Fold:
Amino acid sequence: MRAILQEYGTPGGLILDAPCGTGRLAPTISERGRFVGLDASGSMLAAARDKQAGALFQGDLLRLPFQAASFDTVLCCRLLHHLKTQAELESTLGELMRVTRGTLAASFWDSLSLAALRRKLPFVRQPAHRAPFPKRWIEAAVQSAGGEVLAWKHSARYFSQQTWFVARKR
Structure:
């Protein structure tokens, strides 16, 4: 995430972290800009407040309490793999794209990672609440929201299921 912010972020810009959880990314985000966090969980936000993470808001990711184009950069880490369908993916990315005036960077589980391919074997238990997505679904959802994917970022292609994409509004 640090490298993504350095390459695609706006230095000193306003950066939304949604969902922000306990604010664990706030120090890294604050190195590059002004941190704003949003999460649905009051207890997560309380932990973030204890860390003095910055401006924090409680809210629903599908109805963000911000005007369109409010942020230079929007980050979404460790959420998309909890979605089940392409429609949920499109709704979520549409709302995140709505509030950025610059870039959106989000992590997802790549359906071509070894872990995702292993999950297709009949004898492997699959967590029902987490799902990998094909890159074409991500790209289609971003395009549907009026954006374009600029880059795919992998820590270890095929071995790590978590992948990042960076998109911007067209």
Summary: The chain has a mean pLDDT of 88. The radius of gyration is 16 Å. The longest helix spans residues 86-99. DSSP finds six helices and seven strands in the chain.
